[in-house]
């Protein structure tokens, strides 16, 4: 135990001596939490619409005015033909082309129905899907309002009125979704990258050689590496929670004790991951690439930014095999919903399993002798 | 009992494609200053890493202080000091912090064994608050030696301690080793510099993983079987080609400003004759002297015989 204390003292001394890493450890949570939720926003606004009005009737003008007034759209052009309007999409000056056919009003009144063409630029999938469906909603709304329908079709009066409320995030604000995810991201980066690079750096500098010929035990060395980064991780997590509260007013609904229990277990798991990477790599560049490869998968498949439930079955299976997925879920549940241990115990056991498995594997693979 | 025993040790890398150590056997007596002499890539570091329990041999057994390098590695780690060829202390810790850290890893303190490192540490003490990475090459070596000595090891393994160190520091370093030897520490040192070989009590000449000869430097020199001449002339390159093309020449190689040369079956050649013979062939400013072989001559001869 005495030896472990000296190893810890040395590790902390080295961490505090590396000013760049130290600054990054504290700048990263603050800056990421302040900037990312503001920048990352899936609400679609300012969809640019190019209008082709072949009718020029009062109905067509009403429809165009309604689209323009909805708040989601900006009418950028009114062109005489679809071909010319499509050029706006080609030049990326418009996202959607709304085509109103000739005799729109006439047909609508006479026949009781009419077709409208909507062409969407689908290069940005989210914007296209959401922009297109907003437009359809606006047109549907218009459809109900026009006098022909409201008077001639009695069935239209029997529409179902929908009232809904957003639970746990009343205004359905994106920041509530993304802030817990960034907290998770921070712990993952600190735990995964810093430990892997730190141990590999000892390999690269040859200092591990000098350590290996001493009577120091394997577990002492490994604990000496894990504990400092565990402490750093918990500190950064606390800092992250403080920023989330100070900047976004997000105060965890659930208990702090539970949140920290999960953070502690999760950190152990990612530290084990970092340790594992370091046992398989010989230099910092290798470690960086291997860790980055897995980090990318963790980030994109764990439900940090997209919903796991909407992935294909095989991707969901992969997602469940990363500790990140479970931790993201739990952090959201505790912070936003106030879940108790009973609600999330399944995730807890999974995290503990990951922590044991990854660390165990790393320890088995770490050798003082080659 | 020998302090270090290597018994038919073989170690290969890359699945047997590269043989680093090839059936090496040797013994080092307690309290001896033993040198492992050989060029880069001869297998010196592999031998050291096997003895310091960092590398597992494929064949053969090795023991240090009677402990087997594979089975009793833990006892060995408590009793030996190792200074790797590359500086491997923490560059971001200061001189004093490095020393303190390694002392505590061995469960001791600087004060306890200060007498052992006193002479060496006094020289770097003015820089004890400087980070190890900012020390000069010679000072780094001294610090590394202090760290390897701080737990009072019984055997000290020094892997190329003087490589990349200036001549004055090298001299100082060898003087320190002589002092440590006085204190009864067995020292095994490797070096690619042949001139350092004579400073050891016994040496092993190693080349391509094989031991060519193990003896005291004097005996190795004495067993040099041929008469050796040092020759120089105005046009040294023409001299070299002429001598190498002569069928009587056994070996001829450059050695500083001279050529060292031995002949086949002319035990009574004298420098006078050789000089006249060379002058007849049109060489100017010819100087010939009969010399005593050095370790390097012995090494080159053994290498060519192998």
From TrEMBL, chain B:
**Alphabetical UniProt keywords:** ATP-binding, Nodulation, Nucleotide-binding, Transport
Protein name, entry field: ABC transporter ATP-binding protein
**InterPro entries associated with the record:** AAA+_ATPase, ABC_transporter-like_ATP-bd, ABC_transporter-like_CS, ABC_transporter_ATP-binding, P-loop_NTPase
Answer yes or no on keyword Repeat: no
As one GO molecular function, the record gives:
ATP binding
Q: Where is the signal peptide?
A: none
Q: State the organism named in the record.
A: Chitinophaga solisilvae
Which PROSITE patterns does this chain map to?
ABC_TRANSPORTER_1, ABC_TRANSPORTER_2
Entry annotated with the keyword Transport: yes
The domain of life for this entry's organism is Bacteria
CDD domains on file: ABC_DR_subfamily_A
What family is this protein classified in? Answer: Belongs to the ABC transporter superfamily.
């Amino acid at each position: 135990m005495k030896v472990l204390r000296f190893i810890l003292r040395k590790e902390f001394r080295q961490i505090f001596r590396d000013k760049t890493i130290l600054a990054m450890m504290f700048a990263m949570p603050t800056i990421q939490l302040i900037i990312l939720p503001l920048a990352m926003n899936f609400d679609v606004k300012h969809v640019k619409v190019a209008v082709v009005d072949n009718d020029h009737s009062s109905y067509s003008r009403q429809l165009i005015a309604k689209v323009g007034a909805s708040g989601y759209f900006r009418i950028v052009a009114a062109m005489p033909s679809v071909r010319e309007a499509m050029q706006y999409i080609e030049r990326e000056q418009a996202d959607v082309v709304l085509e109103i056919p000739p005799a729109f009003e006439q047909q609508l009144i006479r026949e009781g129905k009419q077709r409208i063409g909507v062409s969407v630029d689908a290069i940005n999938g989210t914007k296209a899907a959401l922009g297109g469906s907003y437009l359809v909603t606006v047109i549907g709304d218009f459809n109900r309002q026009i006098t022909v329908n409201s008077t001639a079709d009695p069935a239209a009066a029997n529409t179902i009125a929908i009232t809904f409320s957003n639970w746990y995030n009343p205004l359905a604000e994106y920041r509530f979704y993304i802030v817990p995810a960034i907290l998770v991201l921070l712990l993952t980066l600190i735990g995964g990258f810093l430990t892997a690079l730190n141990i590999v750096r000892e390999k690269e500098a040859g200092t591990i050689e000098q350590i290996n010929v001493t009577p120091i035990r394997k577990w002492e060395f490994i604990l000496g590496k894990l504990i400092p980064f565990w402490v750093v991780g918990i500190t950064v997590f606390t800092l992250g929670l403080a920023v989330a509260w100070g900047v976004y007013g997000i105060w965890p609904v659930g208990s702090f004790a539970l949140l920290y229990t999960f953070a502690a277990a999760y950190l152990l798991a990612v530290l084990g991951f970092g340790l594992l990477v370091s046992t398989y790599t010989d230099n910092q560049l290798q470690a960086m690439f291997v860790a980055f490869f897995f980090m990318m998968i963790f980030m994109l498949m764990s439900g940090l930014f997209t919903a796991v439930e909407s992935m294909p079955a095989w991707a969901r299976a992969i997602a469940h095999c990363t500790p990140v997925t479970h931790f993201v879920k739990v952090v959201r549940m505790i912070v936003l919903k106030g879940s108790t241990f009973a609600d999330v115990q399944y995730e807890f056991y999974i995290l503990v399993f990951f922590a044991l498995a990854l660390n165990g594997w790393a320890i088995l693979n770490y050798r003082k002798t080659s | 009992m020998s302090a270090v025993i290597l018994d038919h040790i073989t170690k290969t890398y890359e699945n047997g494609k590269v043989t680093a150590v090839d059936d090496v056997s040797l013994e080092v007596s307690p309290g001896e200053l033993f040198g492992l002499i050989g060029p880069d890539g001869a297998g010196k570091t592999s031998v050291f890493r096997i003895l310091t329990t960092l590398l597992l041999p494929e064949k053969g057994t090795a023991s240090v202080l009677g402990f087997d390098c594979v089975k009793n590695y833990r006892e060995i780690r408590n009793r030996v000091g190792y200074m790797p060829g590359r500086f491997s202390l923490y560059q971001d810790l200061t001189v004093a912090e490095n020393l303190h850290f390694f002392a505590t890893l061995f469960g001791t303190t600087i004060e306890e064994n200060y007498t052992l490192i006193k002479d060496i540490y006094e020289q770097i003490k003015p820089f004890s608050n400087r980070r190890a990475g900012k020390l000069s090459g010679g000072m780094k070596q001294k610090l590394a030696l202090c760290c390897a000595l701080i737990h009072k090891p019984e055997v000290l393994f020094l892997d190329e301690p003087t490589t990349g160190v200036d001549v004055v520091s090298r001299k100082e370093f060898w003087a320190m080793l002589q002092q440590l030897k006085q204190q009864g520490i067995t020292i095994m040192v490797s070096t690619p510099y042949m001139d350092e070989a004579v400073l050891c009590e016994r040496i092993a000449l190693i080349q391509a993983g094989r031991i060519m000869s193990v003896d005291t430097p004097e005996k190795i020199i004495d067993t040099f079987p041929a008469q050796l001449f040092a020759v120089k002339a105005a046009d040294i390159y023409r001299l070299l080609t002429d001598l190498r093309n002569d069928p009587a020449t056994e070996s001829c190689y450059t050695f500083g400003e001279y050529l060292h040369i031995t002949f086949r079956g002319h035990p009574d050649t004298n420098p006078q004759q050789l000089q006249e013979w060379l002058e007849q062939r049109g060489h100017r400013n010819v100087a010939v002297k009969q010399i005593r072989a050095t370790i390097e001559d012995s090494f080159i001869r053994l290498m060519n015989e192998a």
